[in-house]
Amino acid sequence: MSGHPGPELAIETAGLVKVFGDNRAVDGVDLSVPAGTVYGVLGPNGAGKTTAVKMLATLLRPDGGAAHVFGKDVVREADAVRGRVSLTGQYASVDEDLTGTENLVLLGRLLGHSKAAARTRSAQLLEAFGLAEAAERQIKNYSGGMRRRIDIAASILNTPDLLFLDEPTTGLDPRSRNQVWDIVRAVVAQGTTVLLTTQYLDEADHLASRIAVIDHGKVIAEGTKGELKASVGSGSVHLRLRDPAQRPEAERVLRGALNVAVQLDQDPVALTATVNGHASDLGAAEQAARALSALAASGITVDNFALGQPSLDEVFLALTDRNARSAPGDGAPHNASTTGVPA
Ligand SMILES: Nc1ncnc2c1ncn2[C@@H]1O[C@H](COP(=O)(O)OP(=O)(O)O)[C@@H](O)[C@H]1O
Ligand SMILES: [Mg+2]
Asked: Where is the protein situated, by its record's location annotation (predicted)?
């Protein structure tokens, strides 16, 4: 919308709603996405991410609220919006039977490029996305990671002002995922705003400057990734013991060493401790090292150890625990396998 001072907004929604039958897939979403950044929308399967993206990309009509893209209304000024956005995700734009080059040249021609310009751009993109060697292969013979990369290449034949990437790395191996991340960074460096949906906290953390966490069609947290981490903890220490009989003792030692809640996982030899972001004079790695040496000093044998970011489940647990003020503060924490987010 107009008249605001401050940074230009690529996306602004107010009370955005989409209803399927009696399912409020998107249930009153307010978003402000500054231009020139990667904005992460983090949520589990069925949260409403794709539905929201489709409304913003003018592919679905909202049932309530408003959405503007670069100040243009996605319903009343849909053509103007379409001229500035591009979408990649679960929507196949490439033809399986054509080669990488054939696809990109064809799409370039459809976008109005001359044959020569389409060829040049195609070659550039295939090279930049590490697909030069696969350029003359049919897409149906591409790996999952190559397929995701050619999808993104196809969506930036014309450099869009706003690119929607709907779960671009779901199901990819770590190496392919890193390649996609590099591409996202390169796209943003050229001035494109990216709205990225993901189920992975670490992906949002690596790429996005701001993150909205959504579930059941609602935004349950929003902020810079620093703010989000400060509220949910910056990491998790996952431990597997040799002897399940040592677990109660390990739990006590961990609590003492880290001064945080420790979760007993389903697996009788496993424990998880969330490292607090705000309590860290010590970084997560140092806190973990301290925990390990305390365990060793107590004669507890640790078979396996991992330091990771909190899982999406843990993020939701932390966010919803914080919201539900009546929740038992220090009671035995349960390990949520599903997110018990109140509607
Ligand atoms: N075309 C549709 N018709 C009916 N229900 C739908 C349709 N698309 C999505 N939904 C429902 O809306 C909710 C949100 O789905 P979706 O936006 O695809 O979530 P996400 O992308 O976060 O996984 C889900 O409950 C899903 O089953
Ligand atoms: Mg989706």
From this structure: Cell membrane
Pick the residue whose CA is nearest to atom 7 on ligand 1. 20
Going 111 to 114 to 118 to 124, the CA torsion angle's sign is negative
Give nearest CA residue, ligand 1 atom 26: 46
The pLDDT tens digits for 101-131 are 999 999 999 888 999 999 999 999 999 889 9
Look up residue 106 and give its two tokens: 């064809």
9-228: CATH, from 2.60.120.10, 3.40.720.10, 3.90.76.10, 3.40.50.300: 3.40.50.300
The preferred substitution site among 16, 20, 56 for testing ligand 1, maximizing ligand atoms within 8 Å of CB, is 20
Give pLDDT, residue 58: 94
Question: Rounded to whole angstroms, how far apart are CA atoms 56 and 78?
Answer: 9
Instruction: Output the six-digit token pair for 193.
Output: 């705003």
Q: How many angstroms separate the alpha carbon of residue 50 from the centre of ligand 2?
A: 4
Cβ atoms within 10 A of the Cβ of 327, count? Answer: 11
Domain 233-309 has CATH 3.30.70.100: yes
Question: What are the domain boundaries of the chain?
Answer: 9-228, 233-309
Give me ligand 2 centre to Cα 311, in Å. 19
Ligand 2 centre distance from Cα of residue 295 (Å)? 42
Q: pTM for the complete prediction? A: 0.76
Does residue 23 line the site of ligand 1, with CB under 6 A?
yes
